[in-house]
Write a structure and sequence with these properties.
Blueprint (H helix, E strand, L loop, with lengths): L1 E3 L3 H12 L8 H12 L4 E4 L9 E9 L1 H4 L6 H15 L5 E4 L9 H9 L3 E2 L1 E2 L12 H4 L7 E4 L5 E4 L5 H14 L3 E10 H7 L1 E2 L1 H17 L4 H8 L3 E16 L2 E10 L7 E7 L1 E7 L2 E5 L3 E6 L16 E7 L8 H7 L20
Parallel strand pairs: 2-5, 3-4
Antiparallel strand pairs: 1-2, 3-9, 6-10, 7-8, 7-9, 11-12, 11-17, 12-13, 13-14, 14-15, 16-17
């Protein structure tokens, strides 16, 4: 176990925003909350998942909803901790630690806010290795572990517990219906996992990975190097496209942010165009009408100068951007995982494609 240092908050926010693939929520506000807590002397501990006892209970905490609404309904650490308190009361027992449901975006910082209030450590792991829009796309659900109960809490002091559902997909559907009535954003706590389950089924050391990615970008910027080039070299990714945002279409519907982005090429991509489709996160990219790359690979739109990620709720006309592809954890390239997280799971009539060498088509 180690302390997350004050300077690592910004690094984690940058790295998690990149791993968010356009979703997961902008971590800026969560980072402000954490820095405020750190200024008062609060510290958060990060525990290696292999140090958990097999019977330790680990709660998965996150924010759920449409990223655009999350920008309007500002959360704070007290809001983030509400579903955990409700979960412990419902189960009649306390948890040993908290961890992120997904390492992408603000959900990478959500467990840190909970930990800052409760004193619990944060497990260096998550269930996605990036951000995905739906619960059944997590490693625990894909490996067919029980996903219930689920607790949702909103800013109106409403708490909803879903104790049973036929499947993770049905749990997601029911939760999304309730979420729309809550205003399309809520804090959640998912069924606690045992330490053994975390070690066997989670994506391990993903918080450390996000901090590492953030450090790569920040250090390149300090050296006045290209942060995009530094990132793709360090993480074995690829630059898919460089250009200027020409058109954005998006709408908040059924608890998701859906839409498309069209980018006109610059530099070596001049004369070409790239279209991106998203459901909270970027799901597929077409160059001049031909599919280039799809989920579950991490498709990230980044500011070409600063190297900061741009979320689907923040992208706008005129931005000069670089579209980067980073490898998703190998777990998600199995046939079972691709069935849950590949393009067909999002309703597209084509199979997984990638531009990263040696990772299949």
């Amino acid at each position: 176990m180690r302390t997350i240092e004050p300077d690592e908050i910004d690094l984690l926010a940058t790295g998690a925003w990149i791993l968010g693939a356009g979703g997961g929520g902008n971590p800026y506000l969560a980072g402000l909350n954490l820095r405020t807590l750190y200024e008062t002397g609060t510290r958060v501990s990060l525990i290696d998942p292999m140090e958990l006892a097999d019977d330790d209970a680990v709660a998965l905490v996150s924010s759920m909803g449409a990223p655009l609404v999350g920008r309007e309904r500002l959360s704070d650490p007290r809001f983030a901790v509400k579903p955990l308190v409700a979960m412990q009361k419902y189960l009649g027992r306390e948890v040993r630690a908290v961890m992120s449901g997904e390492i992408g975006g603000t959900n990478a910082l959500q467990p840190l806010m909970v930990a800052a209030v409760t004193g619990l450590p944060v497990v260096d792991a998550d269930a996605m290795g990036r951000a995905f829009p739906e619960t059944q796309m997590s490693s625990f659900a894909i490996d067919e572990l029980p996903m219930l109960p689920l607790v949702l809490a909103d800013i109106r002091d409403t708490e909803l517990i879903i104790p049973r559902a036929e499947s993770p997909k049905w749990m997601e559907r029911i939760a999304r219906k309730a979420l729309t009535e809550m205003g399309s954003v809520a804090a959640t706590c998912k069924a606690p996992r045992t330490g053994r389950e975390v070690k066997d089924h989670a994506i391990l050391h993903s918080t450390t990975k996000a901090i590492r990615i953030g450090r790569t970008v920040h250090e390149a910027r300090r050296r006045h190097d290209d942060p995009i080039a530094a990132l793709v070299e360090a993480e074995k990714g690829a630059v898919l496209f460089r250009g200027k945002v020409h058109d954005v279409s998006r709408r908040a519907t059924e608890g998701f942010l859906r839409g498309t982005v069209r980018i006109e090429g610059l530099d070596g991509d001049r004369g070409a165009s790239l279209e991106l489709a998203f459901q909270n996160e970027f799901a597929a990219a077409w160059r001049d009408g031909e599919v280039q790359v799809t989920t579950p690979e991490i498709i990230c739109v980044m500011d070409s100068v600063s190297g900061e990620a741009i979320g689907t709720e923040m992208i706008r006309y005129g931005q000069r951007v670089s579209v980067v592809v980073l490898p998703v954890p190998d777990f998600f390239l199995t046939q079972r995982a691709l069935a849950a997280t590949g393009p067909r799971a999002f309703g597209y009539d084509f199979d997984f494609r990638t531009v990263l060498a040696g990772r299949g088509q």
